[in-house]
Design brief:
By secondary structure, this protein is of the alpha+beta class. It has 23 helices and 18 strands. The chain has 3 domains: 152 residues, Glutamine synthetase, N-terminal domain (Ubiquitin-like (UB roll)); 381 residues, Creatine Kinase, Chain A, domain 2 (2-Layer Sandwich); 128 residues, Four Helix Bundle (Hemerythrin (Met), subunit A). Strands 10, 11, 12, 13, 14, 15, 16, 17 and 18 form a 9-stranded mixed beta sheet that branches. Strands 1, 2, 3, 6, 7, 8 and 9 form a 7-stranded mixed beta sheet that branches. A two-stranded antiparallel sheet has the order 4-5. Helix 11 packs across helix 15 and helix 20 runs parallel beside helix 22. The protein binds adenosine-5'-diphosphate (ADP) and magnesium ion (MG).
């Protein structure tokens, strides 16, 4: 492997490359556009496009694509070559500024939730110059936003960019109040830790359920699971290690700051963490990371599972979304400072997050709700469906003393005031890590742990940015009018803590006691996607997103529909797959085994009339009962699928999928797992959990 610094970002048309290849004034104009968030002038675009093309061709590229993030949650691209015909019948390689900044993919096949009917299929992609162009698979990829002919947003990137803008504006207002005159921009930063499973490709191919749905729909508990906890941070196997080496190499080429990798709790589970960066770029990078994980795994004869819950009874996969705010000078606004002044600012930003999370629990839950993630959240596994914040004992006691209930400074027993020299320097409480909290403060950032492993991080961060922007704007509204800033700030902090401390919980979030306690505190417990998603369309939500121009009412309604439809489709595919497996594979296999048992018993009897055939008899009896139970439950599921069409509207349909279809699948699964335990290995047509989990 070559030198890391040499390969890092070698496939990215980044700042260094631009500085080197663009005329000075073009480079300046480009940078200015980005700083001011304006659209690119066509003359500048022409020069940038040409330089980009030359650079890409030198790297062996012949095609380019506008790379975008439609509502499918994965990325989309349509390749065009640089080739252009000349009048004398030859070809030249061309790439214009117009092609760089605007594309017109046929948008009719992407989910729009009724925003765009197929007859007006036109959609536009527009370059997002804040994210660098890069080369992937010998294609020049230009990160773009995607919208319809009428201007409605059809992708995940645009609202994310808008939410960052909203947060920037409101955070700057607040900083100004603290006398900050140097900060010109506030961005949010994200470092998403990605969990995934690796299994052998041959084993994967034999599991129809994984092939069609990304997860196992059945599978008896293996003799060895994760109970020994010997996989977490364990030695990485040579095959996985070779995979990780190549993976890192590929990610580095794309300028992705992949840094840590380790084994996770479950067998075959691993994690990759990048160094944090600007949220928009982190989001693009995470999409590329997921794609690269799949591609490199395939090269190494493995399959990478990104599903949130590939195996029942074994830990699922999430994405820990580490989030913070940073000034253009790199000051982390969630970093407790060393002076009372810094700490007052820190407390205000902290309180904004606390208030946002409490007031918009519903939207945070909405942002992570999918069919796959429902298996994790609210299951017997981290984190629960109830949103709460972990702050740690130290920070919580600081807040309590600000509120005036207890004296933080035990020695002097004095109440703390903000902005004067009374606030102590906070000891950084990073050791006391609560792994069960869905939203944990980890020293200088928040870690939102409810995000599913497969999910694009655009949605959760769009929500996080917008709700915090909202609280900051309310704070700024009050403080800007204050005669006595310090007094008003004190009061604001006190009130905020008093009114929203119910969201703070430092205990074990997995316990039943917490569920009871949370209910007492009036916290939401939205257990499933059909329960959560309708909150997205609430008046409160529409008001919020429209206030900051992140999403319009129409866009919100269409997104609500898209997400619910996707939920229904996913469960529908799972149900059809399970029916197919039961009828075509399991029932025939078990029947064949029953026949062998009967034949054995018969020939034993023929050989010796009074021989004992109890084993065959009881097995035949048990398997026959289970097989008929499976058969009738399969028919029941088939009938339920026919009832779907009687539902009115997508919300009711989603509930039906949850309460009837999914429930019927669970019942089938119980029978199948029982059958698996009692069927001879040579008759069971699928690799078992043990064989899958320990296949690499
Ligand atoms: P751990 O949580 O495992 O102790 P770290 O604290 O090193 O590990 O960071 C975990 C993740 O959080 C990494 O992806 C890291 O880049 C990210 N992170 C660290 N600081 C910030 C920040 N200010 N903003 C966003 N993400 C951050
Ligand atoms: Mg972590």
């Amino acid at each position: 492997m070559s030198n890391i610094s040499e390969i890092f970002g070698s496939m990215v048309f980044n700042d260094d490359v631009m500085k080197e290849r663009l005329p000075k004034d073009t480079y300046k104009a480009y940078k200015k556009t980005i700083m001011e968030g304006k659209s690119l002038d066509i003359n500048v675009a022409n020069v940038v496009a040409n330089a980009m093309k030359d650079w890409a061709i030198e790297k062996g590229t012949t095609h380019f694509t506008h790379w975008f993030q439609p509502m499918t949650g994965i990325t989309a691209e349509k390749h065009d070559s640089f080739i252009s015909a000349t009048s004398d019948g030859k070809v030249i390689m061309e790439f214009s500024g117009k092609e760089l900044i605007k594309g017109e993919p046929d948008a009719s096949s992407f989910p729009s939730g009724g925003l765009r009917s197929t007859f007006e299929a036109r959609g536009y992609t527009a370059w997002d110059p804040t994210s660098y162009a890069f080369i992937k698979d010998s294609v020049l990829c230009i990160p773009t936003a995607f919208c319809s002919y009428g201007g409605e947003v059809l992708d995940k990137k645009t609202p994310l960019l808008r939410s960052m803008e909203a947060l920037n504006e409101q955070a700057l207002r607040v900083l100004k109040l603290f006398g900050d005159t140097t900060t010109t921009r506030v961005i949010t930063t994200v470092g998403p830790e990605q969990e995934y499973f690796l299994i052998d490709k041959e084993v994967y191919k034999k599991r129809k359920d994984i092939v069609f749905t990304g997860r196992t729909l059945f599978g008896a508990k293996p003799p060895k699971g994760q109970e020994l906890e010997d996989h977490y941070f364990g030695a990485i196997k040579p095959r996985v290690s070779a995979f990780m080496k190549e993976l890192n190499n590929e990610l580095w080429k794309l300028g992705i700051l992949a840094r840590t990798e380790h084994n996770e709790v479950a067998p075959a589970q691993h994690e990759l963490a990048p160094i944090f960066t600007n949220t928009n770029i982190a989001c693009d990078h995470n999409q590329l990371t997921m794609e690269t994980l799949k591609r490199i795994a395939d090269k190494h004869g493995m399959f990478c599972l990104l599903h949130e819950k590939p195996f029942a009874g074994i830990n699922g996969s999430g994405k820990h979304n580490n989030w913070s705010l940073s000034t253009n000078d790199g000051v982390n606004l969630l970093e407790p400072g060393t002076s009372p002044y810094d700490n007052a600012r820190f407390l205000l930003f902290l309180c904004a997050v606390v208030k946002a999370v409490d007031e918009y629990q519903d939207l945070l839950k909405v942002s992570v709700s999918t069919a796959g993630n429902d298996h994790r959240l609210g299951g017997n596994e981290a984190p629960p469906a109830i949103i709460s914040i972990f702050l740690g004992d130290e920070l919580t006691s600081v807040l309590e003393s600000v509120e005036g209930e207890t004296a933080y400074d035990k020695e002097f027993k004095r109440e703390m005031a903000v902005g004067v020299d009374a606030i102590p320097v906070f000891p950084k409480d990073t050791t006391d890590r609560n792994r069960t909290s869905p939203f944990a403060f980890t020293g200088n950032k928040f870690e939102f742990r409810m995000v599913g492993s497969k999910l694009s991080i655009a949605g959760p961060n769009m929500v996080l940015n917008t709700i915090v922007a909202d609280e900051l704007s309310r704070f700024a509204d009050i403080l800007e009018k204050a005669d006595d800033f310090t007094a008003e700030l004190n009061k604001l902090l006190k009130d905020t803590i008093k009114n929203h401390k119910r969201i703070i919980f430092n205990g074990n979030n997995y316990t039943d006691e917490w569920v009871v306690e949370a209910e007492k505190r009036g916290l939401l417990n939205l257990k499933s996607t059909p329960e959560s998603i309708p909150y997205f369309s609430s008046e409160k939500s529409v008001t919020l997103f429209e206030k900051f121009n992140v999403l319009s009412r129409k866009e919100i309604y269409s997104r609500t529909e898209i997400v619910l439809e996707e939920y229904c489709k996913e469960i529908n595919i799972e149900a059809l797959t399970l029916i197919d497996i039961a009828k075509k594979d399991l029932i025939p296999s078990v029947t064949a085994y029953i026949k062998e048992l009967s034949d054995t018993a018969n020939s034993k009897k023929a050989f010796m009339i009074d021989i004992d055939c109890e084993t065959e008899k009881s097995l035949i009896y048990k398997l026959s009962l289970l097989a008929s139970s499976l058969y009738s439950k399969t028919e029941l599921l088939e009938n339920k699928l026919l009832e779907v069409k009687n539902c009115n509207g997508v919300e009711e349909t989603a509930y039906f999928y949850r309460n009837s279809i999914f429930a019927a699948m669970q019942e089938m699964r119980a029978v199948i797992d029982e059958l698996e335990t009692n069927t001879a290995k040579k008759y069971w047509p699928f690799p078992t959990y043990g064989e899958i989990l320990f296949s690499v």
